Amino acid sequence: MPSSKERTDASDEPENESVAGQAADGELTDAEARVDETPEQRLERESAEYLANWRRARADYQNLRRRQREDIDLAISRAREALFSELLLVLDTMDMALETECSGEDGRNLLLGVRMTRDQLMHLLERDGVRPVPDGGSFDPAIHQAVETVPGGDEPPGQVVETVRTGYRMGDGVLRHAQVKVSAAEDADSDGEQESPTASEDETASA
């Protein structure tokens, strides 16, 4: 008497044979269709296949060239930013030299040469899209870096009171943030002034 496993295997055999038969019939049908096609139909089919493969290869090549251009542009942009950042340090040194008081004709001539060199360097930077961040105005974290808060006086809070180091933009981006002093609210100063009398009264009471 056959076991249950043998009966199961025997029942699966017709199904497997039918699937294999369908696949074979499909292959035969495709092969028969190619055998029955005329030379013109065969040429048309092969032309369509070659055209599809060519279009796919052309699209892959265009995508590759686009990625290469993007990588090259990014590398050039980073190299320019690094170079301009170094030149800004030279510009800072010239600005500090121009703030020095010079006496005598030789000193004034030297100062004039430094100013001309500085103007020429700034002209070259501006030609490549580098421009300084304007002084004053409202504090903007996109272009400013606050290094200190000071009493605003007549200025409302959040205003740029003084520029410690000039910032520069390049195109739509920021090459270097401007280091600035920002006006603070008057409440903090008034609270600080009110604490002093209280502290003195406590000291008097303890004495």
Question: Can you put this structure into words, describing what you see?
Answer:
This protein is α+β, with helices and mostly antiparallel strands. Among the domains are: 13-72, no CATH class; 132-195, Nucleotide Exchange Factor Grpe, Chain A, domain 2 (Roll). Helices cover 66% and strands 15% of the residues. The chain contains 4 helices and 6 strands; from the N terminus they run H-H-H-E-E-E-E-E-E-H. The chain has helices spanning 4-36, 39-98, 105-127, 186-206, and strands spanning 130-132, 144-151, 160-165, 168-170, 173-176, 178-184. It has a 3-stranded antiparallel sheet. A 3-stranded mixed sheet has the order 2-6-3. 6% of the residues are buried. Residues 188-207 have low confidence and may be disordered.
Give the rounded overall mean pLDDT: 79
Structural class: alpha+beta
**SSE pattern:** HHHEEEEEEH
What general form does the structure show? elongated
For the record, the CATH class of the domain at 132-195 is Mainly Beta
Strand content: 5-15%
The CATH topology of the domain at 132-195 is given as Nucleotide Exchange Factor Grpe, Chain A, domain 2
Rg (CA only): 40 Å
Terminal residue distance:
115 Å
Quaternary: single chain
What is the correct CATH architecture of the domain at 132-195? Roll
The description of the largest β-sheet is: 3 strands, antiparallel
**Spatial strand arrangement across the major sheet:** 1-4-5
> Uncertain regions: pLDDT < 50 for 5+ in a row?
188-207
CATH superfamily of the domain at 132-195: Head domain of nucleotide exchange factor GrpE
DSSP E strands, number: 6
Q: Tell me the helix content.
A: 55-70%
